[in-house]
Amino acid sequence: MGSSPSNTANTTEEKVVSNGVNHTAPIATKGLAVDSASSPFKVFDFERRVPKPDDVFIRIHYCGICHSDIHQVKNEWHTSKYPMVPGHEITGVVEQVGSNVRKFRIGDHVGVGCMVDSCLHCNSCKKNFEQHCPDIAFTYSSTELDKVTPTYGGYSNFITVKEHFVCKVPKNLPLDAAAPLLCAGITTYSPLRQHNVGKNTRMGVIGLGGLGHMAVKFGVAMGAHVTVISTSESKRDDATKLGAKAFLVSKDAEQLKGAENSFDFIIDTVSAQHDVAAMINLLAFQGVYCMVGAPPKPAEIPSFVLLFKRPIITGSLIGGMKETQEMLDFCGKHEITCEIEKIEATPEQINVAYDRTLKSDVKYRFVIDILNAFK
Amino acid sequence: MGSSPSNTANTTEEKVVSNGVNHTAPIATKGLAVDSASSPFKVFDFERRVPKPDDVFIRIHYCGICHSDIHQVKNEWHTSKYPMVPGHEITGVVEQVGSNVRKFRIGDHVGVGCMVDSCLHCNSCKKNFEQHCPDIAFTYSSTELDKVTPTYGGYSNFITVKEHFVCKVPKNLPLDAAAPLLCAGITTYSPLRQHNVGKNTRMGVIGLGGLGHMAVKFGVAMGAHVTVISTSESKRDDATKLGAKAFLVSKDAEQLKGAENSFDFIIDTVSAQHDVAAMINLLAFQGVYCMVGAPPKPAEIPSFVLLFKRPIITGSLIGGMKETQEMLDFCGKHEITCEIEKIEATPEQINVAYDRTLKSDVKYRFVIDILNAFK
Fold first, then answer.
1. Which residues of B306-338 are buried (b: 16+ CB within 10 A; e: fewer)?
2. Is residue A96 part of a domain?
3. Residue A255 within a domain
4. Half-sphere exposure of A261 (CA within 13 A, CB side)
5. Measured on CA atoms in the order A249, A253, A257, A258, is the torsion positive or negative?
């Protein structure tokens, strides 16, 4: 279980953590937490468990800021548990492994996403959709399977996670830009795979934010002909740089009219209320429309569109562990990471990042530098 | 091209038409027509074309009354063409065939549904979805492919139809109860086949009318566990008689709660406005919800249901010619026909039937006796 000589880290910062540790008592951990929906972030001291036989102990290097962190910090989904250490776009390096762990070695680059445990025997788990397990333990603002022990997320310097819920991050990917792959990445990769996006698929991506820009990258890498559909003409250049072949302004009725019936697959990444029926009109006969955002009000879908277009209207929620690993391997092969802005792990910088995220003023994801924090 | 001795008709009424004819001039035809959205039905004299090489000339025996006949007679879809001879649930017997016709012989029992021609070379036609061809010629209130010649439907004693759009009706099925198979039958059979309903599929049928009762029969014959979901407790006995194993009253919140997440496939046959979101809640993870009715207002579908259930929300419109023939063969094998009330081909009886159809006061389809009309 010592560090492997072949596991040479590819940056200075990663070398410091490649020698392994041997914790036998709970591990003192520092995080950034809020105590209530209206509290500011503060440094929070807590403990991570000693790795059990099937656990991996990880030194967190980076954690992305997902829009859902903000919803949960503010208790907008009415399920928040405090104190809350948010964060479910986690990358880091393995420092210790339990005696039964086979997939990971000390020094491995790893990622942890939105969940840290599930029952592993229900129908959803057996189908590799652990994210739909009724007993799921989310990475934070949740509890372990005992329904008592709180879970704390990735705005912290260590985490202990069951091996099944840890993914390998290919060593050619920088850990900072890879962090958002664990949520924004899998959320957009999964529906493309589930609906067989491939060479020459006429694919539309609605919204060019954290999710949308990843959908464009994946679609392009899979060989699709990608069109970005945005409310704002200002995103055209960025769409092109990301590899999109076409751009539609969704507020321009004429452009929409010209694009009717022209997409085999549309991924809708927009969480703000918008006219879904107008977007479904863009689908070709038997096309697929997949929502990954969650607008507050229901989508209004005319029945005649369902009858005459025979579309598949569906949605998708992150992805299972097997698919998340497949996504990371795909990213390694195609050298895909997120476009990020890195910030320091301070309450002040997180506040600024949250404000800018709410204004969609980020290209395209904030990532917190945890490795250099709490010193 | 003479009648075949083996084509002995199985009822007295069918014997009279088994000897064939040899029309060489347009055929005087009688129908029941309306002249405008507010006109009463009247007897209407017109001509059918002499069969071209790929045409089949049919003596119509029966024609079902579809709810959409009423919409079109009253111009509720704003596309009606007058004078209008409605009717697209047609059964009859072949009296003459064109020189290139290979599939049909004089005396064959045949059916004609909602369409009488299409381009046969577009993507939809090539995929056997002729009903989605942009150049489709509907059976009535439409024009032939020349975009000029009006089409007249099955409330008439003869029809000349291109071979491709004629189906064989198995001889073990009575032609009266088989007539609605050409619309109500294929409308419900197609989505079950497209979505692989089969042994032990947990299938829900919303609405027990002309469409719903056929969906139940098909589902039962395919081995599904069928539940009828109806606003009215009064339909329970009929559902059971048709083979349904369970019954849910859709206005009973407690019953709906108990049935959440329990269906693999739901076919929604209701054209009146109803709460689609409440019905989608009944779907199991990754279940299929297929609408075949067309309520006037859009269905409201919450995005979180799409994300957490990963359902397929879709629709279906009749079926292509290949599938319509498959459906009729399936009906022959399983001895499936519609439950009907037969009426005479008079304006008075059609008026009564329309009024009762609008009140859902029919079990389950009116069929007009054309064979004994116009004498």
1. bbebbbbbbbbbbbbbebbbbbbebbbeeebbb
2. yes
3. yes
4. 9
5. negative
Is residue B325 domain-resident? no
Give the pLDDT confidence of A3-38 residue by residue, as tens digits.
333 333 344 344 434 568 899 999 999 999 999 999
Q: Is A203 exposed, middle or buried (0-12, 13-18, 19+ CB in 10 A)?
A: buried
Q: Which residues of B touch A293 (CB under 8 A)?
A: 303
> Do both B166 and B253 map to the same domain?
no
Cβ pair A291:B303 closer than 8 A: yes
- Angstroms from B119 CA to nearest CA on chain A: 17
Give burial (CB, 10 Å; 0-12/13-18/19+) of A125: buried
**Which residue segment(s) compose the domain that B189 sits in?**
185-315
DSSP for B235-275 reads GHHHHHHHT-SEEEETT-HHHHHHTTT-EEEEEE---S---
Contacts of B361 (CB under 8 A, 6+ apart): none
pLDDT digits (tens, 9 = 90+) for B247-276: 999 999 999 999 999 999 999 999 889 999
Residue A14 corresponds to which tokens in the numbers above? 């990663």
The domain spanning residue A361 has which CATH number? Answer: 3.90.180.10
Cβ under 8 Å to A: B residues 104-143: 123-124, 129, 132
Residue A174 · residue A93 · CB < 8 Å: no
- Quote ipTM for the complex: 0.88
Buried b (16+ CB within 10 A) or exposed e, B86-106: bbbbbbbbbbbbbeebeebbb
**Contacts (Cβ under 8 Å, ≥6 apart) of A209:** A269, A360, A364
* B-chain residue closest to A316, CA distance: B307
